[in-house]
Amino acid sequence: MPHDRHQEPSLPSARGPVSAAVREHLLGTGPLPRHEAVAGADVYGEDLQLALYLCYELHYRGFADVSPDREWDPDLLRTRAALEHRFLSALRTDTPAHDSVEDALADLLVEPVEGTGVSHFLSKEGELWQVREYAAQRSLYHLKEADPHAWVLPRLWGRAKAGMAAVEFDEFGGGRPDRVHARLFADLMTDLGLETTYGHYLDAACAEMLATVNLMSLLGLHRSLRGALVGHFAAVEITSSPGSRRLADAMRRTGAGPAAEHFYDEHVEADAVHEQVVRHDVIGGLLAEEPHLAPDVAFGIDATGYVEDRLADRLLEDWHAGRSSLRTLQHSETSHIS
Predict the structure, then answer these.
(1) Within 13 Å, how many C-alpha atoms sit on residue 118's CB side?
(2) How many CA atoms lie within 13 A of 166 on its CB side?
(3) What crossing angle do the helices spanning 74-94 and 17-27 adopt, rounded to 10°?
């Protein structure tokens, strides 16, 4: 089934008292979580991250059986603000920080001789079931990849806006619906025998995956975080080309299929060009107009690396132990996830 049909995903199962209360409120069957419950939840844990994801998804496609009016429900927005405050405060405390944008960008451009991340693992030794799990997890991100970044466009002007729009135009297929990158990822999923319906793997995705999507939603939805959103965008685009090259190798080595190979081959070429535009026009243009946002840009770069590293650690820990990284499946089922 095509991922881009007009259909809201189903609400996922709750993962604790906070997400259960948010879920019940969305359905009109219960109150929102109490402040004490939000304050006591593990900030990077399944319960809080799912609750925040539910709040954010109302600004994308929403959920089946949930009124579109919930998007601007003032009580829900207050709960979302409390969840966001905990998440953002934790990121500011826990993220290893660079002193400057230049230092943060310089580290992004350094490729370690002996890499140990997910793309290195999959390119060298990953099995097809792990490639499929990676695609299922990342579908929460890639099926909405460019959308939260587009929220920053009304908050930029001049060179930064023009550069951002140029890169986003490519992400959205350059005017061709069959070339939209989210569409290309759905084709990759089809090659891998995965379900391409938007939001299908939300119940299966781990908390660390939810956090990577929540970060870009958080930064995209707040004008005050526009500098950090540009930093996030830079981190994604600058690291994409070498990582995509390794993932393309993984697709070929495991026999994933031509569309799976094409998705990453496309990103090797496109994002090598995007890197220059983002560095010189988007970041350069933003800081020429608003130099006081430099610490925010650096934070966006660093926070992106932090949540992606946490996800990589989770996936590799599970895979090295021979178990599935997906919440709703056992290891024996990962060879035929659907």
Answers:
(1) 25
(2) 17
(3) 150
